[in-house]
Amino acid sequence: MDTSRRIVIVGAGGRLGAALAREYSRDFEVVGFNHAQLDLGAPEQLRSTLGGLDFDVLINAAAQTNVDRCETEQEEAFALNAEAPRVLAEICREKKARFIHISTDYVFDGEKREPYAEDDEARPISVYGESKRDGERRALEANDRALIVRVSWVFGPDRPSFIDAILKKARDEEEISAVADKWATPTYTLDLAAWLRSFLFDRAEGGILHLANGGECSWQEYAQWALDCCHAEGVPMKARKVGAASLADMKNFIARRPVYSVLGTGKYHQATGEVPRPWRGAVAAYVRDHVR
Question: In this structure, which topology does domain 2-154+189-213+262-276 adopt according to CATH?
Fold first, then answer.
């Protein structure tokens, strides 16, 4: 273990933060903060707590990610998703530490029908997307070496996600459905941890980077493949087919969602020479290793 390098992870209790903390603690000293330990909405606490620490990298994997709550609690959304990243970026600039901030595909309006590149114009259509885009902007203004990493449909073993919810339902019900007219790409937390390694210490450039597994799918395709993988692995499921629902059927949604928000990873490939594995392989690995 390289104890000379310390990584701080804000949001270490979340789906992605927990995965990053576990994976990186195998090789580096990792200090993780969950919501109870560090309040993103309290700038002075951020400064007093983090200002007294020595570290080389800070990864902010914390945010208000409840898309619909952001519509009704806009002040909270901007405090957590926009102002907090600015404060964290400033702290890292003062310490000459690397700042990596996790953002989202929801900064796009979804009007495009081919993968979004990093230099495509961000036009969010929800308060969540607006607050995350504002957080990107404020972080880069405060620290031009900040690295903004956009991800989509994050899943992994540490906290339940869409895929866990759909499989839980499939265990008990023969008929299930998922939205078939909204497309993006699942992003496996364990893969993301591996991809990010290249950018922790050795690459000093800042800016925006898209990271997601390869390909694209609808929620229905995503759910059907996970269900197929469960049957192949002998995981008991009542359902065998995922029916098609429409985004317009989701009457409980408050915020608008982009219909198409696939993230292109060409910039990552150009920087590293590597290509993220396809989402189907990542989902199959997750089911094999973590679904019982």
Answer: Rossmann fold (3.40.50)
